[in-house]
Design a protein that fits this description.
This protein has 652 residues and is mainly beta. The chain has 7 helices and 35 strands.
Protein backbone atom coordinates (compact mmCIF):
# COMPACT_ATOMS: atom_id res chain seq x y z
CA UNK A 1 0.00 0.00 0.00
CA UNK A 2 3.03 2.30 0.24
CA UNK A 3 4.34 4.23 -2.73
CA UNK A 4 7.73 3.32 -4.07
CA UNK A 5 10.56 5.68 -3.03
CA UNK A 6 12.04 7.72 -5.85
CA UNK A 7 15.20 6.30 -7.39
CA UNK A 8 18.30 8.49 -7.68
CA UNK A 9 19.26 9.44 -11.22
CA UNK A 10 22.92 8.71 -10.50
CA UNK A 11 22.11 5.06 -9.82
CA UNK A 12 19.95 4.63 -12.92
CA UNK A 13 20.84 3.16 -16.27
CA UNK A 14 22.96 5.29 -18.68
CA UNK A 15 19.82 5.68 -20.75
CA UNK A 16 18.62 7.95 -17.97
CA UNK A 17 20.21 10.88 -19.80
CA UNK A 18 17.19 10.82 -22.06
CA UNK A 19 14.98 11.67 -19.08
CA UNK A 20 14.94 15.37 -18.05
CA UNK A 21 17.36 15.81 -15.16
CA UNK A 22 14.92 17.58 -12.83
CA UNK A 23 14.20 16.63 -9.27
CA UNK A 24 10.78 15.10 -8.67
CA UNK A 25 8.19 17.75 -7.95
CA UNK A 26 6.19 17.66 -4.71
CA UNK A 27 2.79 16.07 -4.57
CA UNK A 28 0.40 18.06 -6.75
CA UNK A 29 -2.38 20.05 -5.19
CA UNK A 30 -5.98 19.13 -5.68
CA UNK A 31 -7.58 19.95 -9.01
CA UNK A 32 -4.15 20.53 -10.57
CA UNK A 33 -3.49 18.24 -13.54
CA UNK A 34 -0.20 16.41 -13.92
CA UNK A 35 1.65 15.37 -17.07
CA UNK A 36 4.01 12.42 -17.52
CA UNK A 37 7.04 13.24 -19.66
CA UNK A 38 8.36 10.41 -21.85
CA UNK A 39 11.03 10.33 -24.50
CA UNK A 40 10.59 8.94 -27.99
CA UNK A 41 13.20 6.33 -27.15
CA UNK A 42 11.66 4.38 -24.29
CA UNK A 43 14.17 4.02 -21.47
CA UNK A 44 14.50 0.78 -19.55
CA UNK A 45 11.86 -0.07 -17.01
CA UNK A 46 14.31 0.53 -14.16
CA UNK A 47 14.22 4.29 -14.84
CA UNK A 48 11.37 5.92 -12.91
CA UNK A 49 9.04 8.21 -14.73
CA UNK A 50 9.23 11.90 -13.82
CA UNK A 51 6.11 13.83 -12.94
CA UNK A 52 6.09 17.59 -13.51
CA UNK A 53 3.44 19.94 -12.18
CA UNK A 54 1.79 22.11 -14.83
CA UNK A 55 -0.03 25.10 -13.36
CA UNK A 56 -3.24 26.34 -14.85
CA UNK A 57 -2.96 29.33 -17.14
CA UNK A 58 -5.03 32.23 -15.86
CA UNK A 59 -7.74 33.37 -18.18
CA UNK A 60 -7.49 36.80 -19.75
CA UNK A 61 -9.69 39.40 -18.04
CA UNK A 62 -13.00 39.96 -19.83
CA UNK A 63 -12.45 43.75 -19.78
CA UNK A 64 -9.44 46.08 -20.12
CA UNK A 65 -9.17 49.78 -19.31
CA UNK A 66 -6.78 52.31 -20.87
CA UNK A 67 -6.29 55.86 -19.59
CA UNK A 68 -5.23 58.50 -22.13
CA UNK A 69 -4.38 62.14 -21.33
CA UNK A 70 -4.28 65.06 -23.73
CA UNK A 71 -0.65 65.79 -22.68
CA UNK A 72 1.95 64.47 -20.29
CA UNK A 73 2.84 67.67 -18.39
CA UNK A 74 0.65 70.38 -16.89
CA UNK A 75 1.08 73.60 -14.98
CA UNK A 76 -0.53 74.04 -11.59
CA UNK A 77 -4.00 75.49 -12.09
CA UNK A 78 -4.59 73.84 -15.47
CA UNK A 79 -7.28 71.28 -16.28
CA UNK A 80 -6.37 67.64 -16.81
CA UNK A 81 -8.43 66.22 -19.69
CA UNK A 82 -8.47 62.63 -20.86
CA UNK A 83 -10.51 59.58 -21.80
CA UNK A 84 -10.99 56.08 -20.48
CA UNK A 85 -11.08 53.39 -23.14
CA UNK A 86 -13.25 50.40 -22.13
CA UNK A 87 -12.76 47.21 -24.14
CA UNK A 88 -14.64 44.00 -23.37
CA UNK A 89 -14.87 41.01 -25.68
CA UNK A 90 -18.02 39.62 -24.10
CA UNK A 91 -21.00 41.09 -22.31
CA UNK A 92 -20.45 41.36 -18.58
CA UNK A 93 -22.10 42.66 -15.43
CA UNK A 94 -20.58 45.80 -13.92
CA UNK A 95 -21.70 48.60 -11.62
CA UNK A 96 -19.58 51.62 -12.52
CA UNK A 97 -16.33 52.91 -13.98
CA UNK A 98 -14.70 55.63 -11.89
CA UNK A 99 -11.63 57.82 -12.43
CA UNK A 100 -9.46 59.28 -9.68
CA UNK A 101 -7.08 62.15 -10.44
CA UNK A 102 -4.81 62.73 -7.48
CA UNK A 103 -1.43 63.89 -6.31
CA UNK A 104 0.41 62.44 -3.33
CA UNK A 105 3.52 63.47 -1.49
CA UNK A 106 5.58 60.76 0.20
CA UNK A 107 8.80 60.90 2.21
CA UNK A 108 10.58 57.91 3.78
CA UNK A 109 13.53 58.53 6.09
CA UNK A 110 15.50 55.95 8.02
CA UNK A 111 16.52 56.30 11.63
CA UNK A 112 18.53 54.18 14.04
CA UNK A 113 17.29 53.42 17.54
CA UNK A 114 19.17 51.79 20.40
CA UNK A 115 17.31 49.31 22.62
CA UNK A 116 18.81 49.37 26.12
CA UNK A 117 19.87 46.22 27.89
CA UNK A 118 17.04 46.19 30.41
CA UNK A 119 14.36 46.07 27.67
CA UNK A 120 15.73 42.92 26.01
CA UNK A 121 14.38 39.42 26.66
CA UNK A 122 16.27 37.31 29.22
CA UNK A 123 18.75 34.93 27.59
CA UNK A 124 18.52 31.86 29.81
CA UNK A 125 21.39 30.03 28.12
CA UNK A 126 23.95 32.64 29.15
CA UNK A 127 22.41 34.29 32.20
CA UNK A 128 21.12 31.18 33.92
CA UNK A 129 17.47 32.26 33.63
CA UNK A 130 14.82 29.59 33.34
CA UNK A 131 13.44 28.41 30.03
CA UNK A 132 9.94 28.95 31.41
CA UNK A 133 10.56 32.61 32.13
CA UNK A 134 11.85 33.25 28.63
CA UNK A 135 8.85 31.69 26.87
CA UNK A 136 6.42 33.39 29.24
CA UNK A 137 7.72 36.67 27.85
CA UNK A 138 7.09 35.45 24.32
CA UNK A 139 3.45 34.80 25.17
CA UNK A 140 3.09 38.36 26.41
CA UNK A 141 4.91 39.79 23.37
CA UNK A 142 3.92 37.54 20.45
CA UNK A 143 5.49 37.74 17.01
CA UNK A 144 3.66 40.09 14.61
CA UNK A 145 1.18 38.26 12.42
CA UNK A 146 1.48 40.67 9.50
CA UNK A 147 4.57 40.26 7.36
CA UNK A 148 6.39 43.47 8.34
CA UNK A 149 10.16 43.27 8.12
CA UNK A 150 10.71 46.33 10.29
CA UNK A 151 8.37 45.14 13.06
CA UNK A 152 9.71 41.60 12.87
CA UNK A 153 13.28 42.84 13.09
CA UNK A 154 12.47 44.83 16.21
CA UNK A 155 10.61 41.88 17.75
CA UNK A 156 13.60 39.58 17.23
CA UNK A 157 15.90 42.18 18.77
CA UNK A 158 13.74 42.59 21.87
CA UNK A 159 12.49 39.04 22.41
CA UNK A 160 14.96 36.77 20.66
CA UNK A 161 18.02 35.09 22.10
CA UNK A 162 20.17 38.20 22.32
CA UNK A 163 23.06 38.44 24.74
CA UNK A 164 22.44 40.70 27.73
CA UNK A 165 25.98 41.96 27.60
CA UNK A 166 25.24 44.77 25.12
CA UNK A 167 22.44 46.91 23.72
CA UNK A 168 20.95 46.40 20.27
CA UNK A 169 20.66 49.01 17.49
CA UNK A 170 17.78 48.64 15.04
CA UNK A 171 16.91 50.53 11.87
CA UNK A 172 13.41 51.90 11.34
CA UNK A 173 11.70 53.45 8.32
CA UNK A 174 9.74 56.61 9.02
CA UNK A 175 7.16 57.27 6.27
CA UNK A 176 4.70 60.13 5.92
CA UNK A 177 2.19 60.56 3.10
CA UNK A 178 0.25 63.74 2.34
CA UNK A 179 -2.46 64.10 -0.29
CA UNK A 180 -2.01 67.13 -2.52
CA UNK A 181 -5.45 66.77 -4.08
CA UNK A 182 -7.85 64.01 -5.09
CA UNK A 183 -10.77 64.27 -7.54
CA UNK A 184 -13.08 61.30 -8.12
CA UNK A 185 -15.29 61.10 -11.21
CA UNK A 186 -17.82 58.36 -12.11
CA UNK A 187 -17.62 58.28 -15.91
CA UNK A 188 -19.97 55.32 -16.39
CA UNK A 189 -22.84 54.31 -14.08
CA UNK A 190 -24.82 51.20 -14.97
CA UNK A 191 -28.42 50.97 -13.70
CA UNK A 192 -29.56 48.58 -11.02
CA UNK A 193 -28.57 47.92 -7.44
CA UNK A 194 -26.35 45.01 -8.37
CA UNK A 195 -25.16 46.55 -11.63
CA UNK A 196 -26.19 46.21 -15.23
CA UNK A 197 -25.09 44.50 -18.38
CA UNK A 198 -22.14 46.05 -20.18
CA UNK A 199 -22.41 45.00 -23.83
CA UNK A 200 -19.36 43.80 -25.72
CA UNK A 201 -17.44 46.40 -27.65
CA UNK A 202 -15.28 49.47 -27.20
CA UNK A 203 -16.35 52.79 -25.74
CA UNK A 204 -14.57 56.00 -24.69
CA UNK A 205 -15.62 57.98 -21.62
CA UNK A 206 -14.14 61.49 -21.14
CA UNK A 207 -13.14 63.04 -17.82
CA UNK A 208 -11.50 66.24 -16.56
CA UNK A 209 -10.23 67.72 -13.29
CA UNK A 210 -8.57 70.97 -12.23
CA UNK A 211 -5.13 70.88 -10.61
CA UNK A 212 -4.91 73.23 -7.60
CA UNK A 213 -2.86 76.37 -8.17
CA UNK A 214 -0.79 75.62 -5.06
CA UNK A 215 0.14 72.09 -6.18
CA UNK A 216 3.90 71.42 -5.93
CA UNK A 217 5.98 70.21 -8.86
CA UNK A 218 6.46 66.50 -9.50
CA UNK A 219 9.54 65.26 -7.68
CA UNK A 220 11.58 62.10 -7.14
CA UNK A 221 14.89 61.44 -5.41
CA UNK A 222 16.24 58.44 -3.50
CA UNK A 223 19.63 57.53 -2.12
CA UNK A 224 21.67 57.11 1.03
CA UNK A 225 22.88 53.96 2.73
CA UNK A 226 19.83 51.84 3.52
CA UNK A 227 21.94 49.18 5.26
CA UNK A 228 23.21 51.60 7.90
CA UNK A 229 20.00 53.52 8.53
CA UNK A 230 20.79 56.56 6.37
CA UNK A 231 18.47 56.01 3.41
CA UNK A 232 16.01 58.57 2.11
CA UNK A 233 13.25 58.59 -0.51
CA UNK A 234 10.99 61.44 -1.53
CA UNK A 235 8.44 61.63 -4.31
CA UNK A 236 5.55 63.79 -5.42
CA UNK A 237 3.48 61.70 -7.83
CA UNK A 238 0.46 62.68 -9.91
CA UNK A 239 -1.72 59.93 -11.39
CA UNK A 240 -4.97 59.46 -13.26
CA UNK A 241 -6.35 56.00 -12.48
CA UNK A 242 -9.47 54.21 -13.71
CA UNK A 243 -11.26 51.33 -12.01
CA UNK A 244 -14.21 49.15 -13.01
CA UNK A 245 -16.28 47.97 -10.07
CA UNK A 246 -18.74 45.12 -10.34
CA UNK A 247 -20.62 42.66 -8.14
CA UNK A 248 -18.53 40.23 -6.16
CA UNK A 249 -18.44 36.71 -7.52
CA UNK A 250 -17.98 33.65 -5.30
CA UNK A 251 -14.27 33.06 -4.88
CA UNK A 252 -13.26 36.15 -6.84
CA UNK A 253 -10.24 38.02 -5.45
CA UNK A 254 -10.33 41.67 -4.47
CA UNK A 255 -13.88 41.70 -3.20
CA UNK A 256 -15.34 43.80 -0.44
CA UNK A 257 -15.79 40.76 1.74
CA UNK A 258 -19.07 41.91 3.26
CA UNK A 259 -17.67 45.29 4.37
CA UNK A 260 -16.09 48.38 2.85
CA UNK A 261 -12.61 47.67 1.49
CA UNK A 262 -9.82 49.79 0.03
CA UNK A 263 -7.70 48.38 -2.80
CA UNK A 264 -4.69 50.08 -4.37
CA UNK A 265 -4.01 50.35 -8.08
CA UNK A 266 -0.34 49.54 -8.44
CA UNK A 267 2.33 49.22 -5.76
CA UNK A 268 3.88 51.58 -3.25
CA UNK A 269 2.48 53.56 -0.33
CA UNK A 270 1.53 56.45 -2.62
CA UNK A 271 -0.42 54.27 -5.09
CA UNK A 272 -4.00 55.39 -5.85
CA UNK A 273 -6.81 53.50 -4.13
CA UNK A 274 -10.40 52.62 -4.91
CA UNK A 275 -13.18 52.26 -2.35
CA UNK A 276 -15.28 49.08 -2.54
CA UNK A 277 -18.62 48.72 -0.84
CA UNK A 278 -20.47 45.69 0.45
CA UNK A 279 -20.52 42.95 -2.18
CA UNK A 280 -18.32 44.82 -4.65
CA UNK A 281 -15.16 43.68 -6.41
CA UNK A 282 -12.51 45.31 -8.59
CA UNK A 283 -12.85 43.94 -12.12
CA UNK A 284 -10.22 45.97 -14.03
CA UNK A 285 -7.94 48.96 -13.44
CA UNK A 286 -5.46 51.20 -15.25
CA UNK A 287 -3.19 54.08 -14.29
CA UNK A 288 -1.35 56.92 -16.04
CA UNK A 289 1.29 59.27 -14.59
CA UNK A 290 1.68 62.93 -15.53
CA UNK A 291 3.96 65.81 -14.50
CA UNK A 292 2.97 69.04 -12.80
CA UNK A 293 4.99 72.27 -12.72
CA UNK A 294 4.46 74.47 -9.70
CA UNK A 295 3.54 78.15 -10.00
CA UNK A 296 6.03 79.97 -7.80
CA UNK A 297 4.97 83.34 -6.47
CA UNK A 298 7.86 85.78 -7.09
CA UNK A 299 7.22 87.61 -3.81
CA UNK A 300 7.13 84.40 -1.76
CA UNK A 301 9.69 82.27 -3.58
CA UNK A 302 12.14 80.95 -0.95
CA UNK A 303 14.77 80.55 -3.66
CA UNK A 304 14.99 84.35 -3.85
CA UNK A 305 15.79 84.86 -0.18
CA UNK A 306 18.82 84.06 1.89
CA UNK A 307 18.67 80.45 3.10
CA UNK A 308 20.39 79.59 6.36
CA UNK A 309 22.54 76.46 6.15
CA UNK A 310 21.73 75.61 9.77
CA UNK A 311 17.95 75.81 9.47
CA UNK A 312 17.11 75.13 5.83
CA UNK A 313 20.27 73.47 4.63
CA UNK A 314 20.32 75.76 1.63
CA UNK A 315 22.60 78.12 -0.19
CA UNK A 316 22.68 81.87 0.05
CA UNK A 317 20.61 83.35 -2.72
CA UNK A 318 22.80 86.32 -3.53
CA UNK A 319 26.43 87.33 -3.56
CA UNK A 320 28.53 86.05 -0.71
CA UNK A 321 32.18 86.01 0.31
CA UNK A 322 33.29 82.61 1.57
CA UNK A 323 34.68 82.86 5.07
CA UNK A 324 34.33 86.63 5.39
CA UNK A 325 32.59 88.04 8.46
CA UNK A 326 29.27 89.73 8.16
CA UNK A 327 29.06 93.48 8.41
CA UNK A 328 29.94 96.57 6.43
CA UNK A 329 33.69 96.53 7.03
CA UNK A 330 36.44 95.37 4.69
CA UNK A 331 35.71 92.04 3.09
CA UNK A 332 31.93 92.35 3.31
CA UNK A 333 29.60 92.35 0.31
CA UNK A 334 26.88 94.63 -0.87
CA UNK A 335 24.14 92.26 -2.04
CA UNK A 336 21.31 92.93 -4.48
CA UNK A 337 18.64 90.30 -5.01
CA UNK A 338 16.77 89.85 -8.24
CA UNK A 339 13.44 88.34 -9.13
CA UNK A 340 14.10 85.00 -10.92
CA UNK A 341 10.81 85.26 -12.80
CA UNK A 342 11.16 88.87 -13.96
CA UNK A 343 11.64 89.60 -17.66
CA UNK A 344 14.22 92.17 -18.64
CA UNK A 345 14.22 94.20 -21.81
CA UNK A 346 17.41 92.55 -23.02
CA UNK A 347 16.58 89.89 -25.61
CA UNK A 348 19.38 87.43 -24.71
CA UNK A 349 20.07 87.79 -20.99
CA UNK A 350 16.68 88.34 -19.42
CA UNK A 351 17.05 86.02 -16.41
CA UNK A 352 17.88 86.74 -12.79
CA UNK A 353 20.69 89.17 -11.98
CA UNK A 354 22.83 89.17 -8.85
CA UNK A 355 25.58 91.66 -7.99
CA UNK A 356 28.16 92.00 -5.27
CA UNK A 357 31.06 94.28 -4.34
CA UNK A 358 34.04 93.88 -2.08
CA UNK A 359 36.57 96.28 -0.61
CA UNK A 360 40.23 95.32 -0.16
CA UNK A 361 42.35 96.53 2.71
CA UNK A 362 45.22 97.18 0.29
CA UNK A 363 43.04 99.63 -1.66
CA UNK A 364 40.58 99.34 -4.48
CA UNK A 365 37.49 97.18 -4.79
CA UNK A 366 35.95 94.40 -6.84
CA UNK A 367 32.46 94.62 -8.29
CA UNK A 368 30.91 91.65 -10.11
CA UNK A 369 27.51 91.05 -11.73
CA UNK A 370 26.09 87.78 -13.04
CA UNK A 371 23.10 87.80 -15.40
CA UNK A 372 21.47 84.59 -16.68
CA UNK A 373 19.80 84.16 -20.03
CA UNK A 374 16.57 82.91 -18.39
CA UNK A 375 15.17 81.66 -15.10
CA UNK A 376 13.68 78.21 -15.90
CA UNK A 377 15.67 75.23 -17.23
CA UNK A 378 14.79 71.62 -18.05
CA UNK A 379 17.43 68.95 -17.25
CA UNK A 380 18.66 67.07 -20.28
CA UNK A 381 17.25 69.65 -22.69
CA UNK A 382 18.51 73.13 -21.79
CA UNK A 383 21.89 74.77 -21.26
CA UNK A 384 22.44 77.93 -19.25
CA UNK A 385 24.47 80.94 -20.36
CA UNK A 386 25.61 83.58 -17.88
CA UNK A 387 27.14 86.99 -18.50
CA UNK A 388 29.82 87.85 -15.93
CA UNK A 389 30.78 91.53 -15.65
CA UNK A 390 33.82 92.26 -13.48
CA UNK A 391 35.25 95.66 -12.54
CA UNK A 392 38.39 95.32 -10.41
CA UNK A 393 40.21 98.52 -9.44
CA UNK A 394 42.67 96.76 -7.12
CA UNK A 395 45.93 94.94 -7.71
CA UNK A 396 44.14 91.65 -7.07
CA UNK A 397 44.19 88.84 -9.61
CA UNK A 398 41.64 86.04 -9.98
CA UNK A 399 43.10 82.60 -10.60
CA UNK A 400 39.91 80.85 -11.73
CA UNK A 401 36.20 81.40 -12.24
CA UNK A 402 33.87 78.55 -11.28
CA UNK A 403 30.31 78.28 -12.55
CA UNK A 404 28.18 75.36 -11.35
CA UNK A 405 24.78 74.56 -9.86
CA UNK A 406 23.79 74.30 -6.20
CA UNK A 407 20.85 72.22 -4.93
CA UNK A 408 19.31 72.44 -1.46
CA UNK A 409 16.94 69.58 -0.47
CA UNK A 410 14.85 69.50 2.73
CA UNK A 411 12.73 66.45 3.64
CA UNK A 412 10.37 65.90 6.57
CA UNK A 413 8.73 62.62 7.66
CA UNK A 414 6.86 62.93 10.94
CA UNK A 415 9.55 63.69 13.52
CA UNK A 416 12.46 62.97 11.18
CA UNK A 417 14.17 65.73 9.19
CA UNK A 418 16.83 65.57 6.47
CA UNK A 419 18.52 68.59 4.89
CA UNK A 420 21.52 68.69 2.58
CA UNK A 421 23.09 71.16 0.16
CA UNK A 422 24.91 69.81 -2.89
CA UNK A 423 27.27 71.59 -5.26
CA UNK A 424 26.61 69.89 -8.58
CA UNK A 425 29.42 69.42 -11.10
CA UNK A 426 31.79 71.55 -9.05
CA UNK A 427 34.83 69.40 -9.82
CA UNK A 428 34.08 69.10 -13.53
CA UNK A 429 36.51 70.63 -16.01
CA UNK A 430 33.58 72.11 -17.94
CA UNK A 431 32.61 74.29 -14.95
CA UNK A 432 36.07 75.84 -14.46
CA UNK A 433 36.99 78.87 -16.52
CA UNK A 434 40.02 81.17 -16.80
CA UNK A 435 40.53 83.97 -14.30
CA UNK A 436 41.51 87.58 -14.94
CA UNK A 437 44.54 89.81 -14.18
CA UNK A 438 44.62 92.76 -11.74
CA UNK A 439 42.75 95.88 -12.78
CA UNK A 440 40.46 93.89 -15.08
CA UNK A 441 37.29 95.48 -16.41
CA UNK A 442 35.30 93.45 -18.91
CA UNK A 443 32.66 90.83 -19.52
CA UNK A 444 32.79 87.10 -20.13
CA UNK A 445 30.18 84.47 -20.90
CA UNK A 446 29.98 81.20 -19.00
CA UNK A 447 28.12 78.05 -20.20
CA UNK A 448 26.55 75.31 -18.09
CA UNK A 449 24.82 72.21 -19.43
CA UNK A 450 22.03 70.68 -17.36
CA UNK A 451 22.41 66.86 -17.38
CA UNK A 452 19.32 64.64 -17.20
CA UNK A 453 18.17 63.24 -13.88
CA UNK A 454 18.08 66.34 -11.67
CA UNK A 455 14.92 66.55 -9.50
CA UNK A 456 12.66 69.55 -10.01
CA UNK A 457 12.30 72.69 -7.95
CA UNK A 458 9.34 72.19 -5.64
CA UNK A 459 7.87 73.61 -2.44
CA UNK A 460 5.54 71.04 -0.91
CA UNK A 461 4.42 70.16 2.58
CA UNK A 462 7.11 67.48 3.04
CA UNK A 463 9.59 68.23 0.25
CA UNK A 464 11.38 71.47 -0.55
CA UNK A 465 14.02 71.68 -3.27
CA UNK A 466 15.70 74.89 -4.46
CA UNK A 467 18.36 75.52 -7.09
CA UNK A 468 20.86 78.24 -7.81
CA UNK A 469 23.70 78.84 -10.24
CA UNK A 470 26.85 79.74 -8.33
CA UNK A 471 29.70 81.81 -9.75
CA UNK A 472 32.88 81.71 -7.64
CA UNK A 473 35.80 84.09 -8.12
CA UNK A 474 38.88 82.37 -6.70
CA UNK A 475 41.13 85.09 -5.27
CA UNK A 476 44.61 84.13 -4.01
CA UNK A 477 45.70 85.15 -0.49
CA UNK A 478 42.19 86.26 0.47
CA UNK A 479 38.62 85.00 0.66
CA UNK A 480 36.83 83.89 -2.47
CA UNK A 481 33.83 85.86 -3.72
CA UNK A 482 30.63 83.92 -4.47
CA UNK A 483 27.53 85.01 -6.38
CA UNK A 484 24.37 82.85 -6.27
CA UNK A 485 21.60 83.41 -8.81
CA UNK A 486 18.35 81.53 -8.03
CA UNK A 487 16.81 79.49 -10.85
CA UNK A 488 13.91 77.09 -11.32
CA UNK A 489 14.42 73.53 -12.58
CA UNK A 490 11.34 72.20 -14.36
CA UNK A 491 10.23 68.56 -13.89
CA UNK A 492 11.06 66.14 -16.68
CA UNK A 493 10.75 62.44 -17.41
CA UNK A 494 14.52 62.04 -16.93
CA UNK A 495 13.88 62.48 -13.22
CA UNK A 496 12.74 58.83 -13.26
CA UNK A 497 14.63 57.33 -16.22
CA UNK A 498 18.02 58.79 -15.14
CA UNK A 499 17.39 58.90 -11.39
CA UNK A 500 20.42 58.92 -9.10
CA UNK A 501 21.10 59.96 -5.48
CA UNK A 502 20.96 63.64 -4.67
CA UNK A 503 24.22 65.35 -5.53
CA UNK A 504 25.63 62.38 -7.45
CA UNK A 505 27.57 63.35 -10.59
CA UNK A 506 26.32 62.51 -14.04
CA UNK A 507 28.17 59.50 -15.45
CA UNK A 508 26.21 58.96 -18.63
CA UNK A 509 27.45 59.38 -22.19
CA UNK A 510 28.33 62.75 -23.64
CA UNK A 511 25.51 62.42 -26.16
CA UNK A 512 22.94 62.53 -23.34
CA UNK A 513 23.94 66.08 -22.44
CA UNK A 514 22.27 69.04 -24.16
CA UNK A 515 24.39 70.98 -26.66
CA UNK A 516 26.51 73.84 -25.37
CA UNK A 517 25.06 77.33 -25.96
CA UNK A 518 26.49 79.73 -28.52
CA UNK A 519 28.30 82.46 -26.62
CA UNK A 520 29.55 85.85 -27.82
CA UNK A 521 33.27 86.59 -27.48
CA UNK A 522 34.59 88.17 -24.27
CA UNK A 523 35.36 91.90 -24.22
CA UNK A 524 37.47 94.30 -22.18
CA UNK A 525 36.36 97.85 -21.39
CA UNK A 526 39.72 99.37 -20.49
CA UNK A 527 43.43 98.64 -21.11
CA UNK A 528 44.82 95.63 -19.27
CA UNK A 529 47.52 96.24 -16.71
CA UNK A 530 51.05 95.18 -17.55
CA UNK A 531 52.25 92.34 -15.33
CA UNK A 532 54.54 93.54 -12.53
CA UNK A 533 56.98 90.71 -13.20
CA UNK A 534 57.56 92.03 -16.72
CA UNK A 535 58.24 95.64 -15.66
CA UNK A 536 61.72 96.08 -14.13
CA UNK A 537 62.21 99.78 -14.85
CA UNK A 538 59.94 102.81 -15.07
CA UNK A 539 58.52 103.36 -18.54
CA UNK A 540 59.01 107.12 -18.24
CA UNK A 541 62.42 107.71 -16.57
CA UNK A 542 63.78 104.15 -16.79
CA UNK A 543 64.61 104.10 -13.07
CA UNK A 544 64.89 100.60 -11.64
CA UNK A 545 62.17 99.47 -9.26
CA UNK A 546 63.16 98.39 -5.77
CA UNK A 547 62.15 98.59 -2.14
CA UNK A 548 61.99 102.39 -2.12
CA UNK A 549 60.94 102.85 -5.76
CA UNK A 550 57.57 101.15 -6.05
CA UNK A 551 55.55 100.30 -9.12
CA UNK A 552 52.41 102.24 -10.04
CA UNK A 553 50.06 101.46 -12.93
CA UNK A 554 48.67 104.18 -15.11
CA UNK A 555 44.92 103.59 -15.26
CA UNK A 556 44.70 105.16 -18.71
CA UNK A 557 47.30 103.06 -20.60
CA UNK A 558 48.01 100.21 -18.16
CA UNK A 559 51.82 100.56 -18.08
CA UNK A 560 54.04 100.70 -15.01
CA UNK A 561 55.65 103.96 -13.83
CA UNK A 562 57.40 105.27 -10.75
CA UNK A 563 55.67 107.70 -8.42
CA UNK A 564 57.37 110.74 -10.01
CA UNK A 565 56.18 109.89 -13.52
CA UNK A 566 52.62 109.02 -12.43
CA UNK A 567 51.82 111.38 -9.59
CA UNK A 568 48.68 113.02 -10.98
CA UNK A 569 45.15 111.71 -10.32
CA UNK A 570 42.28 112.48 -12.63
CA UNK A 571 38.67 111.21 -12.86
CA UNK A 572 38.23 108.42 -15.42
CA UNK A 573 34.48 107.66 -15.39
CA UNK A 574 34.47 106.26 -18.93
CA UNK A 575 36.92 103.54 -17.84
CA UNK A 576 34.70 102.41 -14.98
CA UNK A 577 36.46 104.17 -12.08
CA UNK A 578 34.31 105.90 -9.51
CA UNK A 579 37.14 107.90 -7.88
CA UNK A 580 40.06 109.88 -9.41
CA UNK A 581 42.82 107.51 -10.49
CA UNK A 582 46.56 107.73 -11.10
CA UNK A 583 47.62 108.57 -14.67
CA UNK A 584 51.05 109.06 -16.23
CA UNK A 585 52.31 112.32 -17.70
CA UNK A 586 51.79 111.11 -21.27
CA UNK A 587 48.13 110.21 -20.69
CA UNK A 588 47.30 113.28 -18.60
CA UNK A 589 46.09 115.55 -21.47
CA UNK A 590 43.88 112.84 -22.94
CA UNK A 591 42.48 111.96 -19.53
CA UNK A 592 41.54 115.61 -18.92
CA UNK A 593 39.88 115.92 -22.34
CA UNK A 594 37.97 112.63 -22.66
CA UNK A 595 37.69 111.25 -19.11
CA UNK A 596 39.28 107.98 -20.16
CA UNK A 597 37.67 107.22 -23.52
CA UNK A 598 38.10 103.59 -24.61
CA UNK A 599 36.22 101.51 -27.15
CA UNK A 600 35.50 97.94 -25.94
CA UNK A 601 37.61 95.39 -27.80
CA UNK A 602 37.58 91.61 -27.95
CA UNK A 603 39.65 89.82 -25.35
CA UNK A 604 41.94 86.99 -26.42
CA UNK A 605 42.20 84.25 -23.78
CA UNK A 606 45.00 81.70 -24.02
CA UNK A 607 42.82 78.60 -24.14
CA UNK A 608 45.80 76.26 -24.68
CA UNK A 609 47.45 77.42 -21.48
CA UNK A 610 44.22 76.95 -19.56
CA UNK A 611 43.67 73.39 -20.81
CA UNK A 612 47.22 72.46 -19.85
CA UNK A 613 46.75 73.98 -16.43
CA UNK A 614 43.49 72.09 -15.80
CA UNK A 615 45.15 68.84 -16.87
CA UNK A 616 47.58 69.17 -13.93
CA UNK A 617 45.60 70.80 -11.10
CA UNK A 618 48.08 69.69 -8.42
CA UNK A 619 50.83 72.07 -9.45
CA UNK A 620 49.79 74.67 -6.88
CA UNK A 621 47.80 77.90 -7.02
CA UNK A 622 46.56 78.61 -10.50
CA UNK A 623 48.03 81.88 -11.86
CA UNK A 624 45.93 84.23 -13.97
CA UNK A 625 45.49 83.14 -17.55
CA UNK A 626 47.44 85.35 -19.95
CA UNK A 627 45.03 87.58 -21.80
CA UNK A 628 45.73 90.09 -24.52
CA UNK A 629 44.18 92.67 -26.80
CA UNK A 630 45.49 94.93 -29.55
CA UNK A 631 47.26 97.75 -27.71
CA UNK A 632 45.82 101.12 -28.64
CA UNK A 633 42.93 99.68 -30.59
CA UNK A 634 40.41 100.79 -28.01
CA UNK A 635 41.57 104.38 -27.55
CA UNK A 636 39.31 107.00 -29.04
CA UNK A 637 42.22 109.22 -30.16
CA UNK A 638 45.91 108.90 -30.99
CA UNK A 639 46.87 112.25 -29.43
CA UNK A 640 48.83 110.57 -26.64
CA UNK A 641 51.60 109.69 -29.04
CA UNK A 642 52.08 106.29 -27.49
CA UNK A 643 49.54 104.13 -29.30
CA UNK A 644 51.87 103.23 -32.16
CA UNK A 645 54.50 102.14 -29.69
CA UNK A 646 51.94 100.04 -27.79
CA UNK A 647 51.02 98.20 -30.97
CA UNK A 648 54.64 97.25 -31.61
CA UNK A 649 54.91 95.50 -28.23
CA UNK A 650 54.70 91.75 -27.90
CA UNK A 651 51.39 90.34 -26.81
CA UNK A 652 51.62 89.33 -23.13
Amino acid sequence: GCEEAPVSMAAADPFARFVPSTTPAPAPEQDVPTVTLREVMSPPASVPEVRTTVFEIAEAPPCTLTVTLDKSAYDAGETVTGTVKIENDIAMVAKRVEVTIQGRERVTLQRTRVIPEQELAPFHHLQGRSHKEHHARLRIHPKPDVRNLVAEREWRARNGHVSQGKSVTIVEDETQIETVFAERRVVLQLPGVSGGDLPAGTRHEPFSAVIPRAAPSAFYVAGGNWSHGKGYLAEIVYTASAAMVGPEQPGSPGGGGGARARLTIGTGPAAPAVELGDGEALLASAKRHFLVTQQLNPSLNPAMTVMSASTAGGFQGGSRTSGSPSGSGPGSDVVKYANPLSVDAAPRFAGPTVSGSRQFMTGGNLRATVTLDRSVYTPGEDSAAAKLEVNCSAAQACTMVGFHAVCAVNLVANSQKWAQTFELQKESVDTRHPGFPPGYYGERFLPLRFPPGWPATTHGALVRCNYGLRCVLYLPKTFDTTLDAPVVVAPSASMYSCARPAGAPFTGPETALPPAPDLPPPRVFRPLWVDDSLAHVCRGCHSRFGVFNRRHHCRQCGHVFCVRCAKEKRPLPRLGYQLPQRVCAGCLPDALRTGGAFTPVEEQVDATYWRQRMAHPGLGPTPPVPTAYARGAGHATGATGGDAEFQREAIF
